[in-house]
Amino acid sequence: MKVSAFADEISDDLQEQIKHLKANNVGFIELRSVAGKNVLDLSRSEIEQIRNQASDEGIGFSAIGSPLGKFPLDGYFTDQLDGLKKALDYAARLNAPYIRMFSFYIPKDENPAQHRSQVLDWLGKMALEAEKTDIVLAHENESGIYGDTGDRCLDIYEQIKSDSFTGIFDFANFVQCNQHPYQDCWLKIKSYISYFHIKDAMITTGEVVPPGKGDGAVETILTEAIHDGFDNFLTLEPHLSVAEANYGKTTSDLFKTATDALKEILDRI
Fold this sequence. Notes:
Strands 1-2-5-6-7-8-9-12 form an eight-stranded parallel beta barrel, surrounded by four helices. The chain has a two-stranded antiparallel ribbon with strand order 3-4. Helix 3 packs parallel to helix 4. The chain is α/β, with parallel strands linked by helices. It has a single domain, classed as TIM Barrel (Alpha-Beta Barrel).
């Protein structure tokens, strides 16, 4: 397996990130932020410095961990297209094959079905932009967006028929949406999934726990995927401690906990 990570959960400092990635035999980064700056707020020169620094240490990039699609449906779509063009440029500079994205915030207390047409229209236009490149847009399931359940993810994948659009399977995010990841999600969308975000959660509380310790059916799903020929990225996103930012911090010790838990699962498989 090609193991990657959201290394900004370890530290804001890239060299510190690389140090702990190498200590845990993790060879790739899904680049979300460095030095406290979101990837799309970085300059081209900063991206090139990051690429060179990682390359010197033998670290590659699995994806741009962009915030694209974490965006209100009453916003200006041109902002998303501008961000996408920058993300496509940065992914090419990093030799990252994917850009992580989402399927737009649904207004609170409104039926997602009311917004289906707009979501699919916007995603389709973004896929068309990606088709001008070799980069693939990878949709992540997450609460609050259109594609937060197995059924709505399936709807997206069936409608956006493009080689430049694919799915990411995030176990914990499905659990936190009261989905049972194997029955409600994996069995429906597995043919559309290109890689995994590795984190787990408890369905009763939503608490994020090390992979295999929650209700995400991580080992069951990975076993089936690997036996069916999966050999792409497993991207650690541990979220094992509370963060000041809007994503989890993990610390080097907790990052090792998450990495070891994944290795144990892979050893058993």
